[in-house]
Amino acid sequence: MFSRRPATSAAARVLIEDPQRSDAALAELAQVGSTTITSVRARLEQVGVIPHIPVADRVARPRPRQDSRTAAAIATGCTTPRQIADAANVSMQAAWRAWRKLNPVQQDVAAATDSISVAKMPRMYEDTAAATDSITVSATATCGQCGQPFSVSTRNSRRRYCTPRCADAAAAAQGHAPKPRLADPDHPFPQIQSLPPPPDWSRGTCAHVPASQQTWWTSSDPVLREAAAHLCSTCPILAECAQFSLALPVTDPAVYAGMSQAERLRRKREERRLAAMERPSPTRRLRALAAGKLRVMALRIIPVTFAQARAFVAAFHRHHAPPAGAVFSLGVADERGVLRGVATVGRPTNRISDDGLTAEVTRACTDGTANACSMLYAASWRAAKALGYTCAITYTQDGESGSSLRAAGWRQVRQSLPRERKGRELRNWSPSPGDDVIKTLWAAGDGLATRNGRVTGHLCGGCASKFIPGRADARYCSPRCRQRAYRRRVRASLTC
Fold first, then answer.
1. Which CATH superfamily is domain 300-417+436-456 in?
2. For 138, 231, 376, 457, which has the most beta carbons within 10 A of its beta carbon?
3. Torsion of CA 445, 447, 449, 450, to 10 degrees
4. Where are the alpha helices (DSSP H) in 33-138?
5. Which CATH architecture has domain 4-57?
6. What's this model's pTM, rounded to 2 decimal places?
7. Environment class of residue 276 by beta-carbon count within 10 Å: exposed (0-12), middle (13-18) or buried (19+)?
């Protein structure tokens, strides 16, 4: 057992000599514990003796390689997977992988059937010929357009081109129209607007600080982030960095131009508020439309893949990361073919609402285009209803008015407070940006499942339409219908 002082000296010596190696490798070299290496590394980094090296960038101790039994069997002269498996005492699958490394491409079916044990075939085959017909083997073919060799299976032996791009190019050269890759070939798929180019970081203050301070901008410690924001106040590229940071997704927690994640979100909201104040009133807009002085952007609903929806959400959503899965996705594009917003619809996150007949709009994200969000919500409910869902739900955070949902015909159901976690649940909980805010549940359709039973909808006493009530004793779908019913009762009492 080493005493503390010699162990600390030995750890400091090996760390100064080679700080790039991992703690486990240095502990074995200095014959001390890995805890000693970790504490000494932290002290040396704090005083600036060695640079800070992330754990992922440290060189781990190389593991001794074991001799492969399949390689030894192949070296002795085994040429088939069955011989390799018997000689190396391994499974047939491991022997097949080793044999495939030596024979990457099989030339014909006969070569494949020679290397496979017929004894492993099902009993339904009566002879070797029937067994060989059921094997899918890869062969090599030459692309008819670019001339490059590519692998083709015996089940798809008529394939002539290596990629769909080569097939389209060959069809265009022969005068034929290429095969459409989209549901609507007349409209090309819209492209997501790219982010602006970043500024020249080499001229910034963050590029001229010591190595021990370069992690302040991405640290989770609020004190270090505040120190990084103070250094940004004298940066020569402060304006360029601020313009670039406001175009980034709000999910990025780093400090840019002296602004934290929350400060960038507040600045974006303030810019949107000022832009809304500068827009003309609805009356002036209607007059301008009637006079032909104002042109409304034409929007249309388009299908998008889940990967494209995730990319758009990662680039433009204010407070949420892309969803992990979805049942279907859709988007909205303008007349120029630019993607302006996406919506993903999946299973409800609340297990009580997940009854198989309820869908949830997990993400609705736009770039700020007017009327795009309400179009997405309305189209999401129409598509979900066409698939057989009886209800669609979504949530909004505190501070969001829900005007797009009201315009799409959705109804507010209730508000929920942040969940209080304690004990083991609190220890195992990893917070997300939307966990500590009040959420509002919105629904469209009928049959929302809740903890107190299924909300089947009430008939409005004013307009006689079905609606999902916000409370059990609700009789009208809106204050307007309640006022209308009151006036009818007053008129009826006066006539009597």
1. Gcn5-related N-acetyltransferase (GNAT) (3.40.630.30)
2. 376
3. 80
4. 34-47, 69-75, 81-88, 92-102, 109-114, 128-133
5. Orthogonal Bundle (1.10)
6. 0.42
7. exposed
